[in-house]
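Issue: copy button drops trailing tokens. Both records pasted manually instead:
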Amino acid sequence: MIRNRLAAFDATGTVTDWNPSPNGLVWTIVVDNGTTYVGGSFSQIGGEARGRLASFDSNSALTDWNPSPNTSVRSMVSSEGILYIGGDFFN
């Protein structure tokens, strides 16, 4: 299966059906409480407009979360329910 810039594999090493296909680079991924957060330099992911940040629920569906920093997100870490984000943005 072809995947563009983002993929998930099961425990056997087989690619899953998840295929959000971002239109730009993905620099960072964090999974917290069943939510998968991705950051990078994309403007579209999962078939919808998202500015450099997106999240997916435990069923791999894109959520409504859409903070849209103005430039690239390069790192993320989650701690005690707070997602910290670093990158080139200034808003």
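Record 2 (pasted manually too):
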Amino acid sequence: MPTQTAESQSKLTPDDALAMLKEGNQRFLNGTQRKRELNQQVIQTAQGQYPFASIVGCIDSRVPLSLIFDQGIGSLFSAKVAGNIINDDILGSLEFACKLAGSKVVVVLGHTSCGAVKGACDQAELGNLTALLSKINPAVLNIKEPQNPELRNSKNSEFVDAVALENVKLTVQNIRTYSNVLRSMEEQGAIKIVGAMYDVKTGSVSFLD
């Protein structure tokens, strides 16, 4: 499988980039991953990188971004943080990835059974984690059902996954709200900003576009 180059990246549209991610996840599910000479890709990317997609994902070890999208070295920008939330540093990283390095799509990737989301559902407090989980609280509040407080916690997997999905949607909105650069690029058709959910039980990625 060839490594991304400036030429191949420049020919891609945002829709092309999304299709490549979807096709890669399908190969991952089917067990038909492409053969790559990774050592050769190290050499080929030593003088520059031309990723076609940028992904904001959770730090969860069960969600290895390059593997689940069947991509090699030099194809993806990866920003990983518990709960796939954004802050100024991640926004700046995404602006670099898209405006300066040519990435065609930004994907906010949440996942089922997310530990950070469970912590937010339980109103957990622990050092600096407390402030991070507060960024997920709006998603918790947006999910109105169940109303029974005894069911609005990490023991209710359906509630947890509903909050995780809502958190993805809010993060996509926040990217557009807090990054004039990325919002403008999307309005001009240069990039797409989309959400997606990964199922830790199946390995499948479902896109919200």
